[in-house]
Protein 1
Amino acid sequence: MEEGCTEVDLSRAERAMREFLTALGVDLMARGMEETPARVAHLYGELFAGLRADTSELWADVLTENTDGLIAVRAIPFYSVCEHHLLPFFGTAHIVYRPHAGRVAGFGVFARLVARMAQRPQLQERLTEDIAREIEQGIGADGVLVVLDARQLCMTMRGARAHGTRTTTSVCRGIFREDKTMELQAWQMLGERNNGEENISLP
């Protein structure tokens, strides 16, 4: 368990949600609403499970292979919750890394890592950094490129109401930051890059 995290108190969360909805004028005695506070408490317990997750065990079975080429894992789906308004944002994560001394991890590890980093109140920019940092530290990668392409319900349900808007964030670490040729190769693993713009599409 990570420092500062506590176990979920679902009873307390349910009471708080009941008070919250009542304060907003929701009639919890209406048909179909009676169990809503409990359902929401359980839901957010799941959505924020990453607060209590230990990522170190993901790297327990790192392999050593005879490779020094780049490795890409594309289009990993993720779902997270924006910490500003507790509305979802979701999309795909794309990862490229260069192994150090042939140290690689199974492809499924990266999907689980993205999910754990996303299951907490987040900002897309921070989530991108979190994933890149964990890969760099977890397997000692020489270079890491992480790109997140997402839709933010904060932008479509409130405020600007900019329907269909996508946000893209990227982080380069290690050799990809230091060597522009290596960085370009990493981007090419994810698709063409024209005029400095990444051409990465959501499914």
Protein 2
Amino acid sequence: MSLILNVKKRNPAENSALTDTDLKAVVYGGGSESRPILISKSDFLHLFKDVKYSSLFDLIIDGGAPVKALFQEVQVNPVSMDPIHVDLIQIRMDQAMTLDVPLEFIGESKAMKMGGTLNKPYEEIEVECLPDKLPKSIEVDLSKLETYEDRITAGNLVLPEGVKITLDPEELIVSVDAPLSEEDQKKLEEANIGDVAAVTSEADEKKGEEEGKEGEAEAGKTEKPA
């Protein structure tokens, strides 16, 4: 699939000429100064759906020669969640880069089928590689988790050639926690009840103090001087 984004140079002084279909953006890197550009909002949404932040695409400015780029940051309207500004970074293909890549969990865990709960501290991990080696995702095979003692660490992941993980090899990527026993569940429920009771007691105590202060203040207002 061809991943191409055609954009136009933008004059920051002409913001008043922007339309609702335009999206302001800036390109950084590539040995050049930052360059303000305009992106078609529909073109951006269509491409971003496929590449997110971890896939390279060809950026063509005003019909020039394509350069490799990545989306670096997307600012959105906090109410409508529509994109309002995009930062892109031009990539040099001869220099290694570090980037967060999503983990793709595949397969079925026997331990989960026995009632265990999946424990996955990471949804993505940082990798180091040349740009043309950058994977779109890294697979994590859950079928290797047959018991509650099994675990998959960073060092167990199968990586494409030329890709390194910056995490410690012993760092936990995924495991399956055993279900709580009836005794453990009872202890947890008792602990939760105790926490709620403590919070309620503290709230009642504060309320009583406040009511006491209000009563004293009221008494001070009605008391006549001797």
Protein 3
Amino acid sequence: MMWWKRLTRVFAALMFAASFAAVPARAAESASDFTLRDINGQSVTLSELQGKVVILSFWATWCGPCKEEMPHLQRMYTERGDDGLVVLSISTDDARSASRVKPFVKKMGYTFPVLLDRDSTVIGTYNPSKTLPYTVVVDRRGEIARRHSGYNPGDEVELAEFVGGLLSTASEG
């Protein structure tokens, strides 16, 4: 039994050390460009926002965690919009439920752009499994800086810190 404990300790030490090993940098991945219409019928094209930090937030009216996340996105949009942050809230509601999107947005008082991806083309490009909510952060160069699937309370704190770092780094350089 003694050898088993030693082996377990050695394995645990190796795993701990490996967790701090340098991770090779991933090649920058450009965000796929798209054009979608917002809830008022206006076209919005991602590439036209280059130079800004953009949060792409994929959601649907039937998604509970999505609805929990949205007030936090609104707060970030309100607080950091003048610093170069854009939130594009992309509804993946299909043709049957898309009529609920605009009334929901108005009722909640959201002021960020809300786009309609009725045929799930854009979410399919960014997240083929189409899990919701799904968040992509695009940096000022148009490259994907972060992806996050799901929402749990506290995720918004990490997202705000990450976005704040991108905004401050970009404004210094």
Protein 4
Amino acid sequence: MDVDYRTAFDLAPVGLCLSRNRGIVDCNQALCEMFAAPREQLIGQTFQVLYPSADEYERLGARMAPILNARGSYADDRIMKRATGELFWCHVMGRALVPGAPHEAGIWSFEDLSEQRPVGAELTPREREVAARLLDGMTSKEIGKALAISHRTVEIYRARLMRKYKANTTADLVHKLIAGA
């Protein structure tokens, strides 16, 4: 039996996207539904349209480039933005298609985590980055290293998150982040 790869791409149960220089070259129906945007609105745009802020788009692109160079792939959970402006948690995985040129061409999958992990309090871009790494079980020192900031700065952001979520411990904060409380 011949496989129609275009149909498989279009009907995949997760959002799929082909990229070139961090721009969207092609995407499937699941991605369009997830981001509440028609295909024509996404094709030709940079991934920045999927991020809560331009700053997060730039910072994440710079941080993932060396990882893509070293491993050829990258994955994380992050807060993304639908065309409606709604923020949601998303698991993103990607593979560079050109070794040594991480952003030149790639394939990316997106999985909507909003049912398991609703977005709760209004968070700043840096708070979203710290929250995502807390959910990965990272320590302040590990988060600081990953974000190229001091662990003391991470502790300040964690304290802000704890106040916003009315959490008494880091474990309580993680629980509330997952629950979106």
